[in-house]
Amino acid sequence: MSYADVYRRSITDPEGFWMEQAQAIDWVSAPSRALFAENAPLYEWYKDAQVNTCWNAVDRHVEAGRGEQLAIIHDSPITHSTKGITYRELRDRVASLAGALRAKGVEKGDRVIIYMPMIPEALEAMLACARLGAIHSVVFGGFAAHELAVRIDDAKPKAIIAASCGLEPGRVVHYKPLLDAAIDGAKHKPAFTVIFQREQEVAKLIEGRDVAWHTFQYGVEPAECVPVSGDHPAYVLYTSGTTGQPKGVIRPTAGHLVALNWTMTNLYKIEAGDVFWAASDVGWVVGHSYICYGPLIAGATTIVFEGKPVGTPDAGTFWRVIQNHKVKSFFTAPTALRAIKREDPSGSFIKEYNLKNLQALFLAGERADPATIEWAQQHLGVPVIDHWWQTETGWAIAGNPMGIELLPVKVGSPTVAMPGYDVQVLDEGGHPLPAGQLGAIAIKLPLPPGTLPTLWNAEERFRKSYLNTFPGYYETGDAGYIDDNGYVYIMARTDDVINVAGHRLSTGAMEEVLASHPDVGECAVIGVADELKGQLPMGFLCLNKGINRPHAEVVKECVGLVRDQIGPVAAFKLACVVDRLPKTRSGKILRATMVKIADGEAFKMPATIDDPAILEEIRTALQTLGYARS
Ligand code: COA
Ligand code: AMP
Q1: For all residues of the chain together, what is the average pLDDT?
Q2: Of 38, 332, 471, 545, which is least packed with CB atoms within 10 Å of its CB?
Q3: Mutation test of ligand 1: which of 78, 114, 168 has the most ligand atoms closer than 8 Å to its C-beta?
Q4: Which stretches does DSSP call E strand in 340-460?
């Protein structure tokens, strides 16, 4: 079947298409139908099924004779170690951890926060929750204690599983003090925490609250897989919205299994026994779908990589991992390739390794710039496939389905809509636009299986953020166009979300932190173009009347405040003091115009601007930071 046939069927006969895909999953009790539209515009898939994610990702492969195959390879150029875990070992470790969690009272539906670096135990913790039907929420290690506290208060976890430390090049990230500060700062207190002590740092445990990973498993009964209903949340993953309060994206169990399984074969062309590597972090959606669940559901081997594209130890690390572990499909963010290209423009490291097993490189997380794609194509000699998706969808909205057929690559486009996604470009009034015209990208409801049914504890926010603007559609928050051949082009966000090194961040959240500085009266944060990271946040601070301290001092404190409150991942290092901010007559800050000035792009003077002279002041301030050069 061609891509066109598969896609057409998914749109004209979604019920038949998705019931057929569901056959690849082991059900405790199979779904009677695929779509449940009773609560439209809130949709659910396979709701009346009974199933367990851990069974499908682990146990069933042992039963099928894959027990001795590697499930996980941990490769850490930071600790100079590599280790493999077979499916049988993984099953036993996960069953034991789940048994210990159960013995301490964790049950189906309880939330468990996981705050761990790139070690196999992070996946084991996720799978142990899945085994019990507990709902995990993984928090990225680069977030500060305050962000962790916000998530604790929203998810209200019974337990938190953390490691003693993470390892960044040249620095140990002390997780335990961050965890302690987060629990102190949160209103909700977990019943207990489980700490995995790493060799590099043994954390001090608090008696009565903290238990050690190994000791608490001692002598417990391993847990069997607990069946859950198809609509049961497999996990909640927080992502940036336009405010400081992150959105808790819910992943429904059954749709997640079916959709990820479909992508492994049809998009990434991976079968049981193959090696798949996504160089991301378990704290992001890519880590959930394609470091943990997707490859394991497919019976493949997944790689947990603790390192960076450059500097651990050099720009050849990725190629070494691909060679040594015989990676077949590789997934990373364009920013990682830009970092490599900057250090090794001629691709000399690539030539040092044998990459014969590599069939394709997949890119996502941010716009893939043509120069980076072309560089990779030229030096790797395999298809470089951009694909577009979001935390909310959990899998690609648009991509090049190489497992069905490799469509011609058009550099700058993540190719075509994936099954079940009826992608359209709309004008401001919600009317579909003709091919080639730029507009808001929306997806006609229902979204396919695996995508978010709603937000955790926030259904009204779900409707407001995604459903209300264009009735009958899901609003992606991205703008772009579709060409005559159905190729999708993603050009920009329509909201205040920025993308820094493939990490999705909220400028609104940074503004809330800056506004909490006692000397700051008003502020704005924008995303400016950056050659390496795609975008960087930049802050503009208006100080309260009568503040006569050196501006540099206030700026330094503000930079420190964002790092302390949001975390190093925000990469907030650029800020300046200005007298006023450019606004419309109704008081709206003209952020988009500020971005254009910073990036040296032409812009039209907004008709509603209150005082055009302010733009010159902004330009001067930007020039002192090395921006706004045309
Ligand atoms: N725990 C703690 N701190 C972390 C962290 C983690 N898991 N991940 C990143 N950080 C810190 C870094 O140490 C750095 O701190 P610093 O300001 O003290 O240097 C800061 O957060 C910013 O990190 P990063 O964005 O990684 O920037 P970098 O300059 O260290 O590296 C790249 C640049 C391009 C190499 C890096 O951003 C990268 O590998 N990007 C790929 C991202 C990716 O895969 N995204 C997945 C989305 S699909
Ligand atoms: P996240 O939820 O962190 O995965 O971020 C999702 C957002 O990242 C999308 O809404 C886009 O703005 C951006 N994004 C992800 N993949 C791509 C891509 N291939 N091309 C352009 N933008 C992308």
Answers
A1: 96
A2: 545
A3: 168
A4: 360-363, 384-386, 398-399, 416-417, 422-426, 439-444
What confidence category does residue 33 fall into, taking pLDDT thresholds of 50, 70 and 90?
A: very high
CB of 86 closer than 6 angstroms to any ligand 1 atom? no
Please check whether residue 138 is in contact with residue 108, taking contact to mean a CB–CB distance below 8 angstroms. Answer: no
N-terminal to C-terminal alpha carbon distance within the chain: 50
Question: For the chain, where do the domains classified as CATH 3.40.50.980 start and end?
Answer: 97-226
Instruction: Note whether 598 and 528 are within 8 A (CB).
Output: yes
Atom of ligand 2 nearest to the CA of 503: 3
133 lines ligand 2 (CB under 6 A): no
Distance 388 CA to ligand 2 centre (A): 6
Q: Enumerate the H helices of 283-439 as residue ranges.
A: 285-287, 294-297, 317-324, 334-343, 348-352, 370-380
Q: How many CB atoms lie within 10 A of CB 491?
A: 12
**Mutational test site, ligand 2, from 331, 388, 400, max ligand atoms within 8 Å of CB:** 388
Question: Thinking of the domain 97-226, which architecture would CATH place it in?
Answer: 3-Layer(aba) Sandwich (3.40)
Q: Which tens digits make up the pLDDT trace of 363-414? A: 999 999 999 999 999 999 999 999 999 999 999 999 999 999 999 999 999 9
Q: What is the pTM of this model?
A: 0.96
Q: Count CB neighbours of 83 within 10 A.
A: 13
Sequence ranges of the chain with CATH classification 3.30.300.30: 501-624
- Given this structure, which CATH class describes domain 501-624? alpha beta
Task: Give the contacts of 388 (CB within 8 A, at least 6 positions apart).
Answer: 364, 396, 397, 398, 399, 414, 478, 488, 490
pLDDT at 629: 79
9 vs 205: CA distance, rounded Å: 56
User: Would you call 169 helix, strand, or coil by DSSP?
Assistant: coil
Q: Predicted confidence band at 606 (pLDDT cuts at 50, 70, 90)?
A: confident
